[in-house]
Amino acid sequence: MSRGFNTNVRVGNRLFHVQTEDRGAVHAKIDTAVYLEGRVIHRHSSPYARLDGTADEQVQEQHRGVIEGLRAGSIVFDGASAGAAHVAPETKLAGGISVTLLNPKSWVSSGKADLRVEVRERGDVAAPIAGARVEVRLDGVTPPQNHEAATDTSGRAQIRFPLPSAGVGAATLVIRAIAPAGESEIRFNLRAKAKTPAAKQ
Hints:
This protein is mainly β. Helix content is about 10%, strand content about 45%.
């Protein structure tokens, strides 16, 4: 059975989170995301090297390669290498889009999820983005939960789905927005026996 890896990597005074996931035989690819302060700053995807077996070794190799690239300063995001200490995170993450969960305290009710999400441009105007694709998934639950919707003219989308009968426990809620102007992702670690998500710092 294929798996995923999650590792925190400190480079200078910055703490990156590296997550590599096997998307399964249906998609036949492996995705790695690098997070800084809760936002995705780098992505790397690769197709299965072989389709007749598990991809465990390839997942581990890709995860290790991204970590080594971060430490060596060879991974580039928004025009700056990970080792370029003179480039502030705020500068590298400027522009693009932002995604917000509008009801973080009330999105769970009676065993169902009701997520109200807003996608806007970054910057002073912060205009709403219509037609952005919003992907929602729950990591660490059985069966896996993956849902998506598109934002309306006000930049908002509503995604509803039943939660697993066993509950969400210590799962992770991931909300990702994709638009021509860029991508943005937020993550919440769900506390056991709690109805509200705690944002990962």
